[in-house]
Write a structure and sequence with these properties.
Length: 295
């Protein structure tokens, strides 16, 4: 063996985990990489908005009124003379918070429900999944609207209401994953050690199904943000003095003929974020595809 071939053999002997392969494949996906970078930038801007915003949230100049983009106001102002860039930055905090928090609620409910149903099986599985089928048949938009009307337009209720109706698909995905994993050797070993079902499900099975969970999470956030935007557009979501991209789009739609920038810029912010999430979700799906990683 020559000295030149030794490093090659050592490199060949070093294996790589599925997560390392997935990270390399994700980095090679330019659309997913750009989407992830844009999303990260949006989140950072949303967190730092109180320090980055060019004007305070309450600042307004009624004498200025709605004015087009200028050096003083890069994206123009609304009919109350408020800086639109500031409004978009603060609205992004609400829209992203709704997307992430409501998705987290849906994730907790869906993963728990699907994992229990898939692991226990039998009659329990049948009853739990028939309940999911029944909920699928309900008009959830009307359900959320009724919640808003009966309990008031509360932002916390909005988080919970959207999350409570977005968990059904996650439950089905999780059930399928658990059914395929519960016959694996590591689960049988955990059972033979006498571990309780809860420990087997949440410490052994769920971590091994994290790939599909991550992918579906990135695809759920855009749908949740669109749902919040639609509710705010109808006047049933975020209420003043708070704002969101959906609420800004609603205001912009009312005055789009006279002041088109009030609709264009909030719409662009929402569109760019949704595209970024979808590109990242597609990239994660391809990167975590075990069969694809073996090609």
């Amino acid at each position: 063996m020559t000295e030149s071939t030794a490093p090659l053999l050592l490199e060949a002997e070093d294996g790589s985990s599925l997560w390392q392969d997935a990270w390399l494949r994700l980095r090679k996906n330019k659309a997913a990489a750009v989407g992830g970078a844009v999303l990260l930038a949006m989140v950072v801007i949303a967190i730092l908005t109180p320090w980055l915003a060019p004007y305070s949230y309450e600042a307004q100049n009624l004498d200025l009124g709605a004015s087009p983009p200028s050096a003083a106001h890069w994206l123009g102002t609304d009919v109350f003379g408020r800086d639109l860039l500031t409004q978009i930055m603060y609205g992004g905090r609400i829209s992203l918070a709704v997307g992430f928090i409501a998705t987290a609620v849906a994730l907790v409910i869906g993963v728990t429900w699907g994992a229990v149903a898939g692991y226990v099986g039998g009659r329990v599985d049948s009853v739990m999944m028939r309940f999911v089928d029944i909920l699928y048949a309900l008009p959830f938009m009307i359900f959320i609207i009724l919640l808003m009307v009966v309990f008031g337009r509360n932002i916390l209720l909005l988080f919970l209401a959207i999350g409570a109706v977005e968990w059904l698909t996650m439950a089905r995905i999780m059930r399928t994953q658990v059914q395929s994993l519960r016959q694996q050797e590591f689960v049988e070993a955990a059972v033979s050690l006498g571990l309780p079902p809860s420990a087997i499900i949440f410490k052994h099975i769920v971590p091994n199904a994290i790939g599909p969970i991550i992918v579906y999470t990135t695809l759920t956030i855009p749908s949740v943000m669109l749902l919040e935007a639609f509710l705010s557009f109808l006047g049933l979501g975020i209420q003043p003095p708070q704002t969101s991209w959906g609420l800004l789009i609603s205001y912009g739609a009312e005055t789009m003929e006279e002041y088109p920038w009030l609709l264009i810029f909030p719409g662009l912010a929402l569109t760019i974020t949704l595209f970024s999430l979808n590109f990242l979700g597609d990239g994660l799906r391809d990167a975590l595809d075990v069969r694809g990683s073996k090609d």
